[in-house]
TrEMBL record:
Pathway linked to the protein: Purine metabolism; IMP biosynthesis via de novo pathway; 5-amino-1-(5-phospho-D-ribosyl)imidazole-4-carboxamide from 5-amino-1-(5-phospho-D-ribosyl)imidazole-4-carboxylate: step 1/2
Catalytically driven reaction(s): 5-amino-1-(5-phospho-D-ribosyl)imidazole-4-carboxylate + L-aspartate + ATP = (2S)-2-[5-amino-1-(5-phospho-beta-D-ribosyl)imidazole-4-carboxamido]succinate + ADP + phosphate + 2 H(+)
Record EC number: 6.3.2.6
Record keywords: ATP-binding, Ligase, Nucleotide-binding, Purine biosynthesis
PANTHER family: PHOSPHORIBOSYLAMINOIMIDAZOLE-SUCCINOCARBOXAMIDE SYNTHASE
Protein family (similarity comment): Belongs to the SAICAR synthetase family.
The protein's name: Phosphoribosylaminoimidazole-succinocarboxamide synthase
NCBIfam families, per the entry: PRK13961.1, purC
Span of domain SAICAR synthetase/ADE2 N-terminal: 18-276
Molecular functions (GO terms): ATP binding; phosphoribosylaminoimidazolesuccinocarboxamide synthase activity
A Gene Ontology biological process term: 'de novo' IMP biosynthetic process
Amino acid sequence: MSAFAAGNPVTVPGWRHVYSGKVRDLYEPEPATVAARPGLEGTVLVVASDRISAYDHVLSTEIPQKGEVLTRLSLWWFAQLADVVDNHVVSEEVPAPVAGRAMICSRLEMFPVECVARGYLTGSGLADYRATGAVCGNPLPPGLGEADRLPSPIFTPATKAELGSHDENIDFSRTAEIIGQTDAETLRDLTLDIYSRAEEIAREQGIILADTKFEFGRRPGDAGGAVVLGDEVLTPDSSRFWDAAAWQPGRVQPSFDKQFVRDWLTSAESGWDRASDVPPPPLPQEIVDRTRERYLEAYERITGEQF
């Protein structure tokens, strides 16, 4: 198990580890580092580990190169979207121990909502639609089914949950209660604009962007100022990508993500009881290899570049 495995953030000289999430580790620069490189004031080093999570658990098994895929793909997308929205990337010049899997970013005051855009009906959106005829308060035509394309993309926000808990889908009015009407409208419009641009780019590469989530913030002291796109963006961890050539409404679509992991964990072979408090078992090598290949394929298909 490498230094990027669960619960074991790598030591980065000149940077102090301050937080670990499901996948990412955050560091802030030491005073001496800032003195040697003044542009680092107010920044954070964002490191994508090879950890993988499923069903609100961080697994004990890592997926080699996953963190590199997430970082490189996010950077690629930030560049594609630069004329649509500002982002938090300050520099790709990172310390050697985390080269290829990290970026130096502005520290942001994040909005406490996840901004989800859906262009297709699946997952929790489909469950909501079947129960209410709408998704997060967005009414939809009758008769839609699994993997159907929506008449137009919809904004379906969620509250951010603590590690180990589920995010909760909310409607626009609840979003406005949490962050204010003006900011809610801004985040909704940005989310749909970014989705539309990204969906078009992905489609040109033979990939369907079914849905995705974004996180936004503002730079400290800039209340009411420009909204900035943060975190990761349009990766297999934050988005549902499908092969356009294989898309077939009416059935669950294979995704360029950790579906192999989810499927194995819920199979009889794993022996894991999802309802128990017991953590998931280690992944078999075959599942690790297939998941790694899926992440690499997503990067190469979307960017048109060799990983």
